Amino acid sequence: MVKKFIITLFLICFAKSFVFAETIDINNDEIKKLIKNKVPIVDIRTSDEWEQTGIIPNSILLTFFKKNGTYNFETWHKKLGYVIDTNKPYVLICRSGRRTKIISQMINNKSGKTIYNAKYGINSWMQSNLKTVKP
């Protein structure tokens, strides 16, 4: 009886550490709702890509992959923590959703947080004639 009580108390006190992370793929309508709720959009593309297509207004620009495809996850994630509260929800966006899917999995493996992935990226945003601005 005492053993069950101790285990139950332990689980109640530390339940947050047992929460599993996930990547939630979202579409443009869901992105718009999150923007209205002031959830930050983190655009991980390169500066050349931002110039070519524009960005979603008020996006945080933080390139992940260098032009040659290399990256430093630890440095990038540390920089991300300087500009947003990484304990709260945020959206990752790239050109097509492929790169942000990879990055969101890295974040989940490291921090156990839930990440929103713009499933079809800025390409879908532009195809829907939604607003972009110059970086």
Q: Can you tell me about this structure?
A:
Strands 1-5-4-2-3 form a five-stranded parallel sheet. It has a single domain, classed as Oxidized Rhodanese, domain 1, CATH 3.40.250. It is an alpha/beta fold and 135 residues long. Helices cover 44% and strands 12% of the residues. Residues 8-19 have low confidence and may be disordered. Helix 3 links the parallel strand 2 (41-43) and strand 3 (60-61).
Number of domains: 1
- The secondary structure category is alpha/beta
Order of helices and strands, N to C?
HEHEHEHEHEH
Q: What name goes with the CATH superfamily?
A: Rhodanese-like domain
- In whole angstroms, the N-to-C terminal distance is 62 Å
Gross geometry: globular
CATH structural architecture: 3-Layer(aba) Sandwich
Strand content: 5-15%
Strand and helix map with partners:
Layout lengths: L1 H12 L9 E4 L1 H9 L4 E3 L3 H7 L6 E2 L11 H11 L7 E3 L4 H14 L3 E4 L2 H7 L8
Structure described in brief:
The chain is α/β, with parallel strands linked by helices and 135 residues long. It has helices at residues 2-13, 28-36, 47-53, 73-83, 98-111, 121-127; strands at residues 23-26, 41-43, 60-61, 91-93, 115-118. It has one domain (19-127): Rhodanese-like domain (Oxidized Rhodanese, domain 1, 3-Layer(aba) Sandwich).
Descriptive keywords:
135 residues; alpha/beta; Oxidized Rhodanese, domain 1; five-stranded parallel β-sheet; 6 helices; 44% helix
